[in-house]
Structure formats: C-alpha cells, structure tokens
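To the wet lab folks,

You asked to see what we're planning to order before we commit. Fair enough. Below is the target structure as tokens, and below that is the sequence we designed to fit it. If anything looks off to you, flag it before the synthesis order goes out.
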C-alpha cells in the first residue's frame, strides 16, 4: 500500500512507548501508552503477528500459503489457515460490492505491468499481453468452501492481497494489544493506521494526510494536507505517486483497474478512507481509487464512509470529500 499518511502530533511524553521495525517490504510502528506488559513481550508479539501475515499472504515469498495456491495446478483444492481464508473472504465481498472495481485476482496484471514480484519494467506491455492476463483475472473465478476453509485453484488464478493484508495486520496487532489490556495505542503498517483510545493527555492520536508529491523531498519531509484525530478507527490510503514509470510522456502508476487491465487514468492522485477495522479501510481506499472521484464519492456517501479524494487538475490538485470525512475535520 502507498504510504500517504504520516504520524503527527504523537507526544514525546515518556508514557508513550514506541516500537518499530520492518516487515512485508515496508515499515511498521506501534505507539502505546505505558503498560505493565514488558517491552520485550510487546515487540515479540507484534513481530510474530506480522510474520504470520507475511508467511500466509506474501506474493514475494514462493513458500507462502498464497504463493503455493497461485502456483498450484488447475482443479486442486487448498486448505487455508483461518487468517488467510478470512482475508480472501473479505476481499471477495468488496469485489462483489464494487462490481469488480476492487479485485484480488488482479495479480497477473500487477506482475505484467512490473509492479509485482515478477520485477519492474520501464515500458508498457502490448495490448495482446494485457488481454491474455485479463483472461486469468476475475473475482468470480475464486471458489471458497467455508465449511472446510479451503479454496479451489481454477487454473491460472493469481491472488494479490497487498491492498488488504497490511490492514488485516493492523487488526491482529490491535487485538493482541487489547487482549493485554492496552487500550490506548496507534499502530502503523506500511502506511495504514489503526488508532484506539487516546494519548496520555486525553487527546486523539493525530495523523497527517500527505499532500501528493511525485517523489519524496531530499530531506524526507512531506507536506501535510490535513491533520485528523484517529480514535477508535482505522485509516487506509492509496496513491499514484510512489510507484510508477513514465514512457513517451505518459505516466503509468501501480494501481491497476481490473476492469480494463490498464493502470488507472482517472485523475485520482490519492484516496484516504476510514473504517473501524483495518481489513475494511485498507482495501476500501484502493476500491474508491479505481471507482474514481464521481462514482467513488457516491459509493462512499451512500455507505457513510469517511473518504478524502485528491484529484489531479492540470498542474495542481483538487479535493473532494464525503460528508463523513468533512465531519472529522470539523471536530
């Protein structure tokens, strides 16, 4: 997932513990109000849960449960761990709700365009290759058996959960913290966030939504677009300004429209979406990006989803937001 948010306003109070590291090709951080749990126990538990998600859902590890399914022969059934099954179920539900604007079977197209484990490219693929990969996609191809927690490989199906697995990791970590009585925390995994409770002074955990830039500045600084309080909510983000290539004056970003097989060309630079759970907020940002500003705003408004769209307009940007997001800014 694109890192389009940064932590802001998290007090340097000694009562806030900070744990951070790297996992799943990105970074993670946990801030929580001091608790009787030992620091070593918290770090070990967080790393264990991140490793579980990576072991089950990575497309970069050939021995992950997901990679083994993607490489399996047609007509074979595969029993999955409960975590992987839950994530795929959630992904398929959102695919159905968005009529395929969100689609976890987009993996062959992600690889074809050079944004997956198959390696980078610097020029677009030809139309025949795109159509060939499109023939392998379609969320309806995935058949699940809930009773036995298994999935059928129909042949050539390649699931990509990179737009939902980090959000699920947030929830796993949050559930662990709460099981230990830690109810005031902010968790970040690959730019996705989950906040519960408050900082020691009683104020919300503050997060800054980044202004879109095509490359990070040399000193690593960013321009905040908005700062919002994240209390009992999760935040997902999707943007087109970190992973892209240009060819003959045209820009190709990593967000693929599964309905066309091509990178998005709808002017949406970034989307931020909020929900209670990370497993919902993370993929929702991607889905709304694909839907575009008009259809995306309508989709989110009808479901009372707090969402912010930043749309490219010439050399600048225009904001669009749902009433639920505007209400957050007004608090």
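Sequence we intend to order:
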């Amino acid at each position: 997932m694109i890192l389009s948010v940064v932590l802001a306003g998290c007090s340097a109070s000694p009562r806030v513990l900070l744990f951070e590291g790297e996992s799943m090709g990105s970074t993670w951080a946990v801030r929580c109000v001091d608790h009787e749990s030992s620091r070593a126990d918290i770090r070990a538990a967080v790393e264990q849960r991140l490793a579980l998600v990576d072991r089950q859902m990575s497309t970069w590890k050939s021995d992950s449960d997901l990679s083994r399914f993607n490489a399996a022969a047609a007509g074979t059934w595969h029993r999955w761990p409960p975590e992987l099954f839950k994530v795929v179920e959630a992904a398929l539900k959102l695919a159905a709700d968005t009529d395929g604007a969100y689609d976890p079977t987009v993996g062959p197209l992600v690889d074809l365009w050079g944004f997956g484990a198959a390696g980078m490219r610097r020029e677009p693929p030809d139309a025949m290759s795109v159509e060939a990969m499109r023939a392998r996609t379609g969320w309806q191809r995935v058949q699940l058996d809930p009773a036995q927690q298994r999935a059928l490989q129909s042949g050539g199906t390649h699931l990509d959960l990179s737009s939902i697995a980090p959000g699920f990791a947030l929830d796993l970590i949050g559930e662990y913290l709460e099981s230990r009585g830690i109810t005031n925390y902010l968790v970040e995994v690959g730019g996705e966030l989950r906040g519960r409770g408050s900082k020691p002074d009683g104020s919300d955990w503050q997060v800054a939504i980044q202004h879109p830039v095509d490359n990070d500045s040399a000193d690593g600084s960013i321009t905040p677009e908005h700062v919002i309080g994240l209390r009992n909510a999760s935040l997902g983000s999707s943007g087109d300004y970190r992973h892209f290539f240009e060819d003959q004056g045209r820009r190709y970003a990593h967000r693929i429209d599964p309905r066309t097989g091509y990178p998005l060309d709808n002017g949406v630079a970034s989307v931020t979406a909020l929900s209670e759970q990370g497993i919902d907020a993370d993929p929702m940002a991607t889905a709304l990006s694909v839907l575009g500003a008009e259809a995306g705003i309508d989709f989110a408004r009808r479901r009372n989803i707090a969402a912010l769209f930043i749309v490219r307009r010439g050399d600048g940007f225009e904001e669009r937001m749902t009433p639920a997001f505007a209400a957050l800014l007004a608090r």
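Structural context that might help your review: The mean pLDDT is 87. The CA atoms of residues 59 and 323 lie 37 Å apart.

Thanks,
Computational group
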